[in-house]
Automatic annotation (TrEMBL):
Keyword hit for Signal: no
GO biological process, alphabetically ordered: tRNA processing
Enzyme Commission number(s) of this protein: 2.3.1.234
Metal-binding recorded as keyword: yes
Name the record gives this protein: N(6)-L-threonylcarbamoyladenine synthase
Location of the Gcp-like domain: 86-336
GO molecular function: metal ion binding; tRNA N(6)-L-threonylcarbamoyladenine synthase activity
Principal EC category: transferase
Amino acid sequence: MSSYLFASSPCSVSRFSLLLGSSLPFFGIKSSAPRFTRRRHTSKSWAHLWTRSSSKLFSALSSPPPAYDDVIMLGIETSCDDTAAAVVRGNGDILSQVVSSQKARRLAGVFNLPIVGVHHMEAHALVARLIERNLQFPFLALLISGGHNLLILAHKVGHYLQLGTTIDDAIGEAYDKTARWLGLDMRKGGGPALEELALEGDANSINFSIPMRQHKDCNFSYAGLKTQVRLAIESRKISMEHNPISLANLDDRRSRADIAASFQRVAVLHLEERCQRAIEWALKIEPSIKYLVVSGGVASNKYVRARLSHVVENSGLELVCPPPSLCTDNGVMVAWTGIEHFLLGRFDPPPPADEPEDAMFELRPRWPLGEEYSQGKSEARSLKRARVFPSLTSMIQGSVQN
Ligand code: KG4
Ligand code: ZN
């Protein structure tokens, strides 16, 4: 039996720090990094990123930075296919640092294994076929995560039509921001914390307006809802800084729960309305469609699942929603998508074992999955975001023709 390696192309960047030893409290850093289009992978660039993180740490402590000799921090940065780790002492001594560029490629090169490049959002969609073996193409998919809101018509593996996308923020980002502003415990993620608090609140207490109703398409927008939430928080005199909900009195907690529930109702209503229209469009394009797949981190939310299952029932389709552990980012979805492509003969030969660390790779943040459905083109979006890369679908079709 042979083994194969699969590489994913995630679109998000994150970094974490862990305290290895100290008499001081725990300090963690997490922030979004700049989006790259093309970058040379050198330890210098990682050092630069690390320096940006560390300056945030020190400014959070006090200014100028104190020399806390007894603090030893492990920093781990992962972005795309890279991982960098360093151990640094509070006085600025770098005790150790390593950078591993294109993790998957290095392993494939060293062990002489073929490699399959996997689009992160395609993996969210296709993992549904691992769960529901009857799920045949074509199908409709709503993919909702921290960075994406996509409605796609999946014709076959590697061939997608984009019916809608977000013109600004994704729903997961709106959940995370709202949770942070409400002072929720973010350790298990903003989305799950907000979902839990919303159970205590009155979802009709605040009448947030539903985004983009005047646009009769399948695109999304969450930036405006975020602003409405912020204003609601401010008007209730809830501090958005250093105000953990664990310290809130009963009235304050109730007020935050009402905001959480009202936000969630409208955020999900926006999904419902867009899905309703997407189902109509999809059935016109491909009348044989039987399934709506809902996947991505936000699809693990019970309220989201329940509301979308009503939409789907009313339209005579079936909902396929992977279990929460396969909705949020996971290795299974990448491996499964690798299998789907591999079985169609789409994979690359093993990279050279001695591929240099600083080889050039093209990173494609926000790489589209498919071409846009002409009716779905949004004037609002084209003003905001120019397309940078040809879609996965057009690249696969181009290579088949060649
Ligand atoms: O797909 P994913 O794991 O990572 C990305 O590709 O972004 O999605 C992460 C997003 C985060 O914004 C997280 O807060 C959200 O999914 N999320 C949830 C829930 N679980 C995760 N949002 C709402 N309710 C949840 N239960
Ligand atoms: Zn994801």
